[in-house]
Amino acid sequence: MRHAVCVIGFGDHAYVLQKTINILDNKNIDFFVHWDARYKIPRLHSKLSEISYVKDRIPVKWGAQGQIQATLKLLKLVHKHSFYDYVHLISCNDVPLMTSNYFIDYFTNEVYLGFNDHFSNDELKKRLGFYYPLNMDFKKHGITTKIEKLGNIIFKINRVKYYPEIRFKKGPQWFSIKSKYVSEILNFNNSIFMHGYCADELFVQTILGRFEAQEPKNDNDNFQAARYIDWNRGTPYVFTSKDVDELRSKVNTQFAFARKVSDPSIVDAIFR
């Protein structure tokens, strides 16, 4: 099996990502990196894996359309190659929970994509129905976001009514899918997801929504996506050195990656 790991990265350094590459370094695993245009591209290295970079980089802000645009740029770069079996999307703060050989052989399903059952029409309207003109970090501009929502309510904006044929679905942004579905994502009319609010969590789930019934029967949509993420202790929780035993117990099980980690020494400790 050949794997393409797509990375959405940001920041002044990529220490955690380099540790991820070190663990998964293998001739059958390559990395494709989009690094936020507001930062200098980090120097990453490997012995066996190929590392490619998106050249036409953009700023990627929390909850804004840049998350989707960066994903599309990565998928377009991967799509130029025809020899990958699976494509994975991670962030630079995700770390592997599989050794490279286990990772290569583990995946057999068509998709590893999380679906959230608790998605109301009211939430859909606020996320995609409303139009958010500014490409901003919603988390940092709470007041502006409220003003934009109020404007949408006043002018009765509801963009989703123009797409009655689409059944919108929600889940975590991070996924693992067979590469044959990349072209379907790229060829979809993705304009509906632009200028939304946290629409990155509706993007791939909507396009590949037919796989919802095939996912494992589990209320944890991150488990469906083969990701180990803790939303009970944080938003999400950032694993620390005291969690090494917990993370180590998940190695070479059903979780491909853990999120989030900011301390690169944790990766060494997990696989020591």
What does it look like?
With 272 residues, the chain is an alpha/beta fold. The protein folds into two domains: 3-116 and 169-270, Spore Coat Polysaccharide Biosynthesis Protein SpsA, Chain A (Alpha-Beta Complex); 121-162, no CATH class. It is built from ten helices and nine strands. It has helices spanning 15-24, 66-79, 100-106, 121-129, 142-154, 182-187, 203-207, 221-224, 244-248, 265-270, and strands at residues 3-9, 29-35, 51-53, 86-91, 94-96, 111-112, 176-178, 227-229, 257-259. The strands form two sheets. Strands 3-2-1-4-7-6 form a six-stranded mixed beta sheet, sandwiched between helices. A three-stranded mixed beta sheet has the order 5-9-8. β1, α1 and β2 (29-35) form a beta-alpha-beta unit. It starts with a strand and ends with a helix. The model has no long low-confidence stretch (mean pLDDT 95).
What descriptive keywords fit this protein?
single chain, 272 residues, alpha/beta, 2 domains, six-stranded mixed sheet, 9 strands
Shape: globular
Quaternary form: single chain
- The CATH class assignment of the largest domain is Alpha Beta
Share in helix:
25-40%
Strand order of the largest sheet: 3-2-1-4-7-6
